[in-house]
Amino acid sequence: MGDAGPTGPVMDRDEVDRALARLGAEHEAIETSLLALQDHAGRRLLEGAALTGVTEERWRATEASITLLWTYFDAYTGALRTAREIRARRRWSSPEDLAELTALLRGECVTVADGAAGEPAPDGAGDRPGARFTLAALVDRINELYAASLDVVVAADAVWSALPARIDLLAAELGRTRRLAHSVGVRPGEHPAGDDLERITRTLTRLREEVVSDPLAFWRPAEGSSAPGGGRPDTTVYDRQARALEDVRREIDAVLTVRQDAEQRIVKLRDLLSRADRTLAEARAARGEVLAKIAATEVPVVSGPPTALQEQLAAAAEYRRHAQWHRLSPLLESLEQKAEEELLRARESLTAVTAPLAVRAELRGRLDACKAKVARHGLAQDPELVERYEKARRMLWSAPCDLRAAEQAVLRYQRTAAELLGAAPRVPGQGGPRGDREDVGPGG
Fold first, then answer.
1. One domain, residues 208 and 115
2. Which of 237, 313, 341, 375 is 20 to 30 A distant from 225 in Cα terms?
3. Which stretches within 377-444 are classed as H helix?
């Protein structure tokens, strides 16, 4: 080992050989990386594209960095070549050769030529005209510039590889959906889905133009990653439009379904409303009968047929004739629910109106059942039973019928029959023995 100098102790021959081998391997790796960067598809695309925004700014700095990389590499190659020539002078290097090699391999022996680094690299550190580097520092600087340049190239290439093709596929699907929408009357200005299709078309067109001219605006670096190209394309806008198009397709599918079964659904609606009308007509007729035959009874008023629903049904038929499926779809859904509700209301009205007649029929059944029972026991001609039977019968078969009085008459007849037949338990709340609800006849 020789005397120490500005670069430290003079290296011996083995140290020099090891350093040259290491630097040679680094030189080969750097050359391979730079050639790969030069041939990278992303770099070629960036070089020939009309760029805007963030990508234009970063690519301008990256181009300068790539130029500087080759300048540094040439300087590195020259220094390594000089060192190899000095080492090759003699098999056993002299002390002077070893001192010169030490200064070359360890000292700041590489100078960036004036004008070579006129455009700063992305981080702008240490790249100034006339700057001097050791070979180790120069390798570190080359690696830094290479990583920053590769990051820009890989990011732009990843966005270009992912988004434009997906946008084109979605645009093709959009075109098919628009044609289908037009065929069922879903058009801009006439249906919200038609307006959505126009908006999606404008957004996708603008998105593709922006992705092609400014891909780095759609790149999201991975958090905590320093590797070149660490990240992913930002597909937020694309994904939003894809979801919106899927919503439109579902809406059009619903319209298509309406077109296929519209006639059947309209026929069913006509039938439902017709049944509701007939039921209401029956309820009105029954109300007149009840008012004529039943006395002292409150009978609910029966409303008329639902004219609004008939008008909406006529509008639905008109929409179908003019193939306005997008308007027919929500109208049919509303009509179907309202028609079911109308039929249920009509049935409830009929039940409420005919309730007094049902009570009278039930009393008649109880009276006849009780008479049949006493006849089986040979008591049909009993004077008291005959009198009470005739009184109850006149009340139930005369008009108007007083239901409260008729019910009391039936109960008296049942109690008398029970007493004569020997039935015992008295009916709670009644003045006499238990009626024939269980012992005398059905319906009691």
1. no
2. 237
3. 383-396, 403-421
Domain that holds residue 276: 265-353
Provide φ and ψ at 233, rounded to 5°. -70, 140
- Which contacts of 408-417 are long-range, i.e. CB under 8 A and separated by 24 or more positions? 410/363, 410/366, 410/367, 410/370, 411/435, 412/388, 413/367, 413/370, 413/385, 413/388, 413/389, 414/366, 414/370, 414/440, 414/441, 414/444, 416/384, 416/385, 416/388, 417/370, 417/373, 417/374, 417/379, 417/385
List phi, psi (to 5°) of 133: -135, 150
- Judge if pTM exceeds 0.85: no
Q: Which of 119, 136, 157 is the last residue in one of the domains?
A: 157
Give yes or no: residues 29 and 45 share one domain. Answer: yes
Q: Do 48 and 109 belong to one domain?
A: yes
> Which parts of 6-125 are beta strand (E)?
8-9, 110-111
What is the distance between the alpha carbons of residues 358 and 365, in angstroms, rounded to a whole number? 11
Q: CA-to-CA distance for 216 and 258, rounded, in angstroms?
A: 46
Contacts of 154 (CB under 8 A, 6+ apart): 40, 42, 228, 229
Q: Report the amino acid identity of residue 434.
A: R
Work out the pLDDT band at 431, boundaries 50, 70, 90. very low
Give pLDDT tens digits for 201-226.
999 999 999 999 999 999 998 876 66
pLDDT digits (tens, 9 = 90+) for 85-101: 887 787 776 778 788 77
21 shares a domain with 96: yes
